[in-house]
Specification:
single chain, Sufe protein. Chain: A, FAD/NAD(P)-binding domain, alpha/beta, 35% helix, five-stranded antiparallel β-sheet, elongated, binds flavin-adenine dinucleotide, Flavocytochrome C3, Chain A, domain 1, 4 domains, nine-stranded mixed β-sheet
Length: 774
Amino acid sequence: MKYLGGRIKMSNESKHIQGEATGHNGTIQYEVDVTNNKIEDLKILKHSETSGIFNQVIDKLKKDVIEQQSFDVDAISGATVMTNAILDSAKQAVAAEDVTLTPIPKKQNVHQTTRLRADVVIIGGGEAGLIAGCRALTMGQKVILVEKNGYLGGATILNGSNVVATGSKVAAAAFGDNGDSPERLAADVARECRQTNLTDMTTLMAHNIGPAIDFISDFAGLDYMKAQTQTPEHSVERQVELPSASSYEFITKVSKAFEDHGGKILLGAKVAQLTFSLAGEVNGLVAEAQDETIKIKAHSIVLASGGYGANTEMRGAESKGIDYYGPMTSTGDAYRFNADLKLKTHDLDWYKVYPHGVETEPGIAKLTTYASKQATDMGAIYVNRQGKRIVNESDVYTKFRDAILAQPDKIAYLVMDERTWQAFYDLLVLHDFTAKEIEGFFANQDKQPLFAKGSLAEVAAQAGVDVAGLQQTVATYEAAVKTGQDTEFGRDAKFLHDFEGETYYMVEQRGRFATTLGGFSIDTKTMQLIDHQDQDVRNYFAAGEVAGGANGHDAMPSMMNSWGISSGYVAGAHASENADAAKQNGANDLNLVAIVGTNASKSYNRQLLHAMRDLFEAQANIDICEIKDLPLFNEDLVNDVPTSVQTLSDKVEDADGVIFAVPEYDHAIPAALKSAIEWLSCATHPFKDKPVMIVGTSLGIQGTVRAQMNLRQILDAPGVDARVLAGNEFMLPQGGAKFDENNHITDPGSVNFLKQCFSNFTDFVQHDARELVK
Ligand SMILES: Cc1cc2nc3c(=O)[nH]c(=O)nc-3n(C[C@H](O)[C@H](O)[C@H](O)COP(=O)(O)OP(=O)(O)OC[C@H]3O[C@@H](n4cnc5c(N)ncnc54)[C@H](O)[C@@H]3O)c2cc1C
């Protein structure tokens, strides 16, 4: 990082301080505007970062800096290198200009737990998650999308938006009636991956990509058009792309449409675990955000968390020697937070390997596809370390990828003349490289990555390629150009061009991958994940790269986007139908803990809770918890919390609400209950903001009225901080005569009153959560 010393002083008070920070892809030039020692603005003058990410991140960073009048603000998750570089550099630059900032401390938020409810919750804000969310919204659901990064887009945002449009109105407009069909697309997929695909997934993709493209075009105002490049793997023209040729456009427009239609996006919230109903069904998730744990309950959960290419521990033998060029945030979190579910997976060691890449950091590649393709179209050749050509350079990518991987060092060298280099260079600069970076490659003493310029012998020597072998190869190739016949590899004559001049360029080409092709297995009839016994995991759906198989061992160009978009579209519909069914069945997705307020073995209050559990079976899962195994509270023990206390505390913490059934002893609550609350307010604090309902029954006619008042007072104490529903008191007098042998309340009037109180309580529990999802 560097301070340029480039201050432009506008007046005595105003300073415009310029500096440079080193981002992922090179220099970021910025300006900090300061007036009277106050930061007014942080402007970016120039950068070469991935725009889709940078644009989303920089506004948030600027807002934090100005609000807090400091560069000691939090980096943005998922973009920490870039944001920390700007913060560190700007801090130094401003200090060097004698600016004394007066930081406005960020409101110290105590870590809090937020509870939300939705019909459908989506994990992951890439294309699969967003389209699933949009579909569910149009089917009338309340949808929350949770994204761990401080920005949307995942791997999607890095690609060129190319996708197939088979069967869509978009395709009809772009290609007319050209003989394409879902069956033809499925056949192309199967052929290109050598029949390694899961056919039911491929069929689903082929039949749904057209409707999905039309749906999202209408929903988000996307304007797909014929893609500039129609790759030869597809037997017919069917590839489309957005006008900007970037999925940043997809993410921006689709996320806006999602929010405009009432969807809620939570950024910087990393899903860490799922939650389950008492019946053991998935019914929500827990996400960790800054200063906040977010617990979301939903009828349907859609897993769309992308691939795991950045997780080197998960990568298997097939990725050895192949560089990664995908996002560092594709860490495969889902394989951790789903571990207990024992989900079925398949082909976790399959990667989409491309032949065009240069290793810019150890193990990390940048792709050169557009530049390399242009170079071979202009006559460039691929050679190995012996200087021998290895493939028909104009064939489909898989052929020369396999040829490169067949080399002992898994490297090929692209040889071109000055004329071709210029075109190659222009495309590198257009796609993610900087001029300075390329200059540095040539200057590198250790020749990593290999970029060489000179005579044929010089470039060969720099690359460690056999000089005589290369000279012989070039002579043979030039003879083939003259005759128009590449007898060695059968390259099409239109791609055979002479090398012009005496200056040659040589650039390494390594296998690289960004996309993982295996993943969790799904039931394509329901889009639900399946477990080791091939059973559907109820309420739990998946879409996108996290669910592998549609493209087999090798995705044709455009087919990962096609899978992400089509599977998201279908999963969104299934998740929505599942939510509707749950709502129609009056699904009991409320998890309540009911605490028996005594340690006595015979208790009418225990009976009352059992009665409530049966009575409200359809509305809530009620877990009846005892306090009789808890030791008497003793402050000496709070640093060594007994297991029985911790277990109860965890249950309360995880519950949507708590019911106390309280007997009355000497005009107050029993000592055993007071002791339990002391544990759960001193050693732990699970009642904080927890909705609470109090019920009670007694042998006499007052039905625990004093104990209930006493309990309300206790639950209001600092450290307990429960939210007890005001004006909701259920007391059952003469409890000894009010239960039958099944613990059911016999008095219809009391049952009706209890129903009313319970309904008030469930509304109360759901109130806050509803606020977020209108
Ligand atoms: C550089 C590059 C170029 C590509 N080019 C093409 C191409 O030209 N054509 C093509 O078809 N395919 C291409 N692909 C592949 C394609 O982009 C992906 O397969 C596809 O976008 C995956 O979409 P997705 O929605 O499943 O996952 P993603 O877009 O990766 O989205 C998943 C999201 O889930 C989030 N997430 C993960 N874990 C959690 C968690 N614990 N809590 C909350 N959120 C979480 C991630 O942060 C991410 O935002 C390319 C990929 C890359 C990286």
